[in-house]
Specification:
By secondary structure, the chain is α+β, with helices and mostly antiparallel strands. 35% of the residues lie in helices and 22% in strands. The strands form three sheets. Strands 1-6-5-4-7-3-2-8-9 form a nine-stranded mixed beta sheet, covered by helices on one side. The protein has a six-stranded mixed beta sheet with strand order 16-15-18-17-20-19. Helix 2 crosses helix 6 and helix 12 crosses helix 17. It binds adenosine-5'-diphosphate (ADP) and magnesium ion. The site of adenosine-5'-diphosphate has 17 residues, from helix 2 and helix 3. Keywords: ATP-binding, Chaperone, Nucleotide-binding, Stress response, Transit peptide.
Length: 593
């Protein structure tokens, strides 16, 4: 038998192994994602290289990944028919850290340890092959490269500073090509050798790996078998007492084991949108996000050029429970894939501004590294471009919904997520142009149904320059305010801002289609009907009265003026041009303790 050779790990690997074995225990299941993605990479590599070197495909086997479990012995094996490794490649790849991603992980781990420690890092970074040692105390890698005529076995143990390599001589273990990884699971992790558990993890992490993944599953089928009936029973219905043996059939379940395709190899977002039905999109949405209602809208698109990614976005039909703190909760609404491998649903904040956090969907990038972390995402120029495009597409989708014939859909949307868009007015001035047409308000001419700013503008009087609004706590109190009198008399429409956030949102927008938003409760309201003659007369007649009132009220008011803004009420309290509106003051009072 050929010799078994012993190798020392590079120092960094030893350190990494030590960390994995001794201090990282949360989120162990990510090992499967890492190993499947290695298998998928190996298949990708082979596919790519075989384009120019068809000799690599001399063994006629399919490109696939097979995961077998032996739950009695706690053994899990992952076999691919990819590029495999030569002896030298085994040393280079599984004994050293060539890769900057893993080195970065080590650094991040150190930093986070200094800052109190965070076991979740492994999930964000992925430590590749070595994550096998999260769950296994012995790992055997048997591998055959089509460039070599020998198959080699790498063997390593958790807590060891060295590994071995030998030639595979067992005829039963010969591979046509590719790699078979066998994990001997730790005592507490033998649960990963349960076929159902593995099936579930594969579905979750790698549902959309582009090569078929088979798992070894127990199956059953029912069979009719003939059984002989008890002769004493049979004699009872025999008329002449002859003991004639009667045959009877019985249904039995026959059990057997077989490979079962566990992933969907063609992700829906890779398909041509023209060939995907709304039902397909909705089904995918409901399955992926555990929703029971169809989404209100969806958008499937590809971007090419500078940055390449595909995405399907959705507007949910319901807002999540606990609306109150909608910007504080973790949403897990965007599933990020890199080259079809599921990376994380934890990066919503990196891909969308928080006011759009209600948008659900998948994003699959070809330009990001597999072991992408939040830190990488935050610094990435690619992500900045992606984010911009995603936001634009989300707005297009919502705009489409707002123009849909089915008006109820947008009403639902507005009820659920109107607040989010108003928050957008405050937080994202760059997208004001996209948000504003989506806003809805009640008005003096539409107290039952909300209207859009476009509808308001279309209804403006020819000489009207501004968009008028009054902020109040309800439609009822808004329509009873004396500020309205003159405007109503002139037939001018006034928006009723009755949601506490409305006023700030509008003040941030400042204008719509070059028309300023004007608060009708502020002093200096100019309705374009100034009559200087008359004002002069009034001042002469009532000037002293005003002075007298101001004296009586003292500091309680800033001033007392004669004004033409009322038609039937004798007087009204207005806010200063630069001060808070009365509504805002009320709000601030309720919020300050
Ligand atoms: P990464 O995948 O980021 O390169 P890993 O630690 O996951 O880092 O893997 C290290 C290297 O080991 C890979 O780059 C690849 O060369 C090799 N490797 C791992 N698994 C396989 C496999 N199933 N088939 C072929 N090569 C593999
Ligand atoms: Mg890897």
């Amino acid at each position: 038998t050929p010799p078994v050779e012993k190798y020392e790990y590079q120092a960094e690997v030893s350190r990494l192994m030590d960390l994995i074995v001794n201090s990282l225990y949360s989120n162990k299941e990510v090992f499967l994602r890492e190993l499947i993605s290695n298998a998928s990479d190996a298949l990708d590599k082979l596919r790519f290289l075989s384009v120019t070197d068809s000799g690599l495909l001399k063994e006629a086997v399919d490109f696939d990944i097979r995961i077998q479990t032996d739950k009695d012995n706690g053994i899990l094996s992952i076999t691919d028919t990819g590029i495999g490794m030569t002896r030298q490649e085994l040393v280079d790849c599984l004994g050293t850290i060539a890769q900057s991603g893993t080195a970065k992980f080590l650094k991040a781990l150190k930093d986070s340890k200094d800052a109190g420690g965070d076991n979740n890092l492994i999930g964000q970074f992925g430590v590749g092959f070595y994550s096998a040692f999260l769950v296994a105390d012995r790992v055997v890698v048997s591998t055959k490269s089509p460039k070599s005529d020998k198959q080699y076995v790498w063997e390593g143990e958790a807590n060891a500073s060295s590994y071995t390599i030998r030639e595979e001589t067992d005829p039963e273990k010969q591979l046509p090509r590719g790699t078979c990884l066998t994990l001997y699971l730790k005592r507490d992790d033998k649960g990963f050798a349960h076929p159902e558990r593995i099936q579930k993890l594969v579905k979750n992490y790698s549902q959309f790996v582009s090569f078929p993944i088979y798992t070894w599953q127990e199956k059953g089928f029912t069979k009719e078998v003939e059984v002989e009936e008890d002769p004493t029973e049979a004699s009872k219905d025999g008329q002449d007492g002859k003991t004639e043996k009667k045959k009877k059939t019985k249904t039995v379940v026959e059990k057997y084991w077989d490979w079962e395709l566990t992933n969907e190899t063609q992700p829906i977002w890779l398909r041509n949108p023209k060939e995907v039905s709304t039902e397909d999109y909705n089904e995918f949405y409901k399955k992926t996000f555990n929703e029971y209602l169809d989404p209100l809208a969806s958008s499937h698109f590809t971007t090419e050029g500078e940055v390449e990614f595909r995405s399907i976005l959705y507007v949910p039909a319901v807002s999540p429970v606990g609306k109150e703190d909608f910007f504080n909760s973790k949403t897990k609404n965007i599933r990020l894939y890199v080259k079809r491998v599921f990376i994380s649903d934890d990066f919503d904040g990196e891909l969308f501004p928080r006011y759009l956090s209600f948008v659900k969907g998948v994003v699959d990038s070809n330009d990001l590294p597999l072991n992408v972390s939040r830190e990488i995402l935050q610094e990435s120029r690619i992500v900045r471009i992606m984010r911009k495009r995603l936001v634009r597409k989300a707005f297009d989708m919502i705009l489409g919904l707002s123009m849909s014939e089915n008006k109820e859909d947008y009403d639902k949307f507005w009820d659920n997520f109107g607040k989010h868009l108003k928050l957008g007015c405050i937080e994202d001035s760059e997208n004001h142009k996209r948000i504003a047409p989506l806003l809805r308000f009640f008005s003096s001419q539409s107290e039952e149904y909300v209207i859009s700013l476009d509808e308001y503008v279309a209804n403006m009087k020819p000489e009207q320059k501004d968009i008028y609004y009054i902020a109040s706590d309800s439609v009822t109190s808004a329509k009873n305010t004396p500020f309205l009198e003159k405007l109503l008399e002139k037939g001018l429409e006034v928006l009723y801002l009755v949601d506490p956030i409305d006023e700030v949102a509008i003040q941030n927008l400042k204008s719509y289609q070059e028309k300023n938003f004007v608060d009708i409760s502020k002093e200096d309201l100019d309705l374009g009907d100034k009559n200087e003659e008359k004002e002069k007369e009034m001042k002469q007649e009532f000037g002293q009265t005003c002075d007298w009132i101001k004296k009586r009220l003292g500091d309680k008011v800033a001033g007392v003026r004669i004004s033409s803004r009322l038609s039937s009420s004798p007087c009204v309290l207005v806010a200063g041009k630069f001060g808070w509106s009365a509504n805002m003051e009320k709000l601030m009072k309720t919020q300050s303790v």
